[in-house]
Design a protein that fits this description.
By secondary structure, this protein is mainly alpha-helical. The chain contains 20 helices and no strands. The longest helix has about 40 residues.
Amino acid sequence: MSPSYRNILRSSMGVLSANLLSRILGFFRIIIEANVLGGGVYKAGWVLAFTIANIFRRILGEGALAQALIPMLSSTLEKEGVEASRRQLNAIFFWLSALLALISIFTALIAMVLKSFVTSEHAVLACTLIPLLSPYILIMCLVGILSSVLNTFRIFFLPALGALFLNIFMIGGMLIIPYFGGSGVSLLENLAYAVLISGLIEFSLMLWLMKCKKILPKFRWENIRNRSAVTELGKLALPGIIGTSAYQVSVLVDRFLSSSLGAQAVSALEYSERLVYFPVGVVAVSISGVMLAEMSRSVGRGDFEGMLAQLRLGLRHISFMAVPVAAFMIVFRTEILEGLLLHGKFTRSDLDETAFAMLFYSLGIPFFCSFKIITNAFYSRKDMVTPVIIGICAIILNITLNLILMRYLRQGGIALATVAASLFNNFALLLILRRKLKRTLGMWPVNLALWRNLLTAFAAGYTVHWMFPFLADGLGAGGIFNSRMVNLAALLLGLGFCGALYLFFSWLLRCSEIPELLSIFSRKLKR
């Protein structure tokens, strides 16, 4: 394994560990949300309001702008150096801040107007919360852009730690606010303030990191008037903004359709999606952020074979990590929800509805993760249009399948439609990439790894699931712990046994990913 690939994996594992810490806190946040907000009106209102704020973060903070900014800055770094990049950033930060401030204001005004027209209780509650959360749009979009800049300069671990603050403040808010008598609408309003404070702290951290690394641009009017930088970013980002906006419209359609099924369906989709996107956030986001920076540098040097080799490396390791997680969440979905959420206001009925949606969402974990790597092959080449066109086709397919499947599978149909659209998106992009590069992608090792991982993951999952009742009975035999603690302990042990069996089966089948991952911990690189 070459030193450059080993460094890519080392950086990816660093970001993965940071994201893992944040996602573990996210798990606790889900548990506390289920206990405090339940699966009814208050949860549905918070989901709808926070979705609106997150849509802009995903479009502008973590979406199209970030995806366009990294290749643009990487190209400037390779050709002109650091100072030229800082001059570009000066203009970009100024104009983006102004644009995001306007978006935040208009979002709040629209919600205030809509409040007079909506009738359902959770929709009225969402319109009440959106103006409080609208500054989050400005703050977190800037955080996402600053994080992308730091990634361009190969600074990955510390920016990834910033996501801890949101979970810390929300967990603290849900634990502390009810203690002082806050409940219902007042609880959610105070949670919105906690979210804003966490965003301000994360933004301050990003600015401090850029200043320490001497890449924070100085405010100069002549640099702000740099139209070429803003124009280039606009041309690169506009297709992505259209595509990501279309995707977020699809997310809103999902929420609207689930809302038509009732507040319980909204909550079921939200809880199951949050649990499913735990591994996506840990694995895919960690690896794809590093891969985009490295693939962009390879393209900047004209090394397209190196870019494809990095693509295959990323897909193999995504498959190695994502497939066993998907298998575990499918096989143990009921046990996961019982151990994490069945408490307080979260009822058995809420659990059954959530488990049904989670079954279908979990099928898509490998596809959701792979998508983030595959699109990097286009973004690194500054091809922002192709993923948009295919993405819009996938969205149309998703909405069509939503309307068909939800009639028979309720919220499970909405989840299954999302998975089918993601599968179509991945295959279409790979076929188009092969055609554009006019060369084979060499995906045989990736396909072989996928089927091997599916076999070993489900073999391990069902083996441990058969043992699970005996494991839970053994832990509860002493009568020291309550049933919920027994379920959680058995679930953690089951997860550990699944992981150990999966690694053992993979080792028996001579899986190449195991020695590759072990090699990143070596202090000396063989040259």
